[in-house]
Amino acid sequence: MQHWHILGAGAIGGLFATLLQDAGTPCTLLLRDNDPDLVAGNACITLRRGEQLHRHRFAVSACSDRSPVAHLLVCTKACDIVPAIAAVGHRLVPGATVLLLANGLGYQDQVRGRWPQLDCFAGSTTEGAFREARRSICHAGHGSTLVGQPGRAAAPDWFTTWRELPISCEWSADIDTVLWRKLAINCAINPVTALHHCPNGALAERPDLAALVRELCTEIRAVAIAAGQEQAVRDLHPQVMTVIRATASNRSSMLQDVLAGRATEIDYLTGYLLAQAQRFGLEAPWNATLLAAVKALTAGPAPS
Ligand code: KPL
User: Fold this and answer.
1) How much of the chain, in percent, has pLDDT values that exceed 90?
2) Ligand 1 atom having least distance to the Cα of 190
3) How many A from CA of 104 to the centre of ligand 1?
């Protein structure tokens, strides 16, 4: 029997926890040592779909506890993944299954490098879920979830449970392409919205921003192709415009982070892209400008 532990029970982590629990798979939320739900010994997540509310009660466990973890789903932000896994590193059994479901690239290699004994998988999801309150999630729209492991064609046994979830959840024999495509789209949208404090749709409506998105796509394509990821950036600009129109009223995740004063995922999006550009001797000046500008936005006040 699989028992999944969830690190990062925000919108996506909470959604998957409820889906797995509904499918009969035990799930435990891993919480920081100071989380108030640890006192109660359990946590309730309310999931809203339209008018319908579903309440789910979960077992909870402090990261610092000692009971073993064999299946770990990590849904934190990209910049929190390595420290979050480090906080439960002592509990992970050798060969534990770890599924990283987050935006961006770069942390997958960091995790594999630091914990080579783990069986590490990566995924990307476009399920439309957002947090309405601390443990209340709205599942606003269906998307698709792809999971894979570089170089692995066939899904492992544990994935049977995931494939049967009542959402579109498939194994990808080419997860690198999936992750690169998502990275490319996020690099073209998220930093622009974060800097201009605008919903995604403004990138199609405002000619200056639309022109910037086009320049970004040209640079992103060149870097991806140099990195051997041509398939991921085929038709990148039309794909980006499709996502912009489909999510026109959304605030990108990076804009939400900036507005909330949180760290952004820029290092694992544009930062990763620029590291690849450097590796292949390419310039990507529009992306470099955005990286610096977003970092300046979220840097603390200059020391006096
Ligand atoms: O994935 C997204 C994000 O905000 O991180 C997009 C596709 C840009 C939708 O907002």
Assistant:
1) 92
2) 8
3) 11
Query: Which residues, judged by CB distance below 6 Å to any ligand atom, belong to the binding site of ligand 1?
Result: 103, 185-186, 189-190, 200, 243, 247, 250, 252-253
Q: Quick one: which of 117, 136, 137, 119 has its CA closest to 128?
A: 137
Going along the chain from its start, the domains and CATH numbers come out as 4-173 (3.40.50.720), 177-297 (1.10.1040.10)
In the residue annotation, 182 being an active-site residue is answered as yes
Active-site hit among 91, 182, 221, 251: 182
Nearest ligand 1 atom to alpha carbon 189? 8
Q: What is the pLDDT of residue 1?
A: 84
Instruction: Please determine, for residue 300, whether its predicted confidence score (pLDDT) is greater than 70.
Output: no
Most confident of the ranges 28-37, 124-133, 240-249, 278-287:
278-287
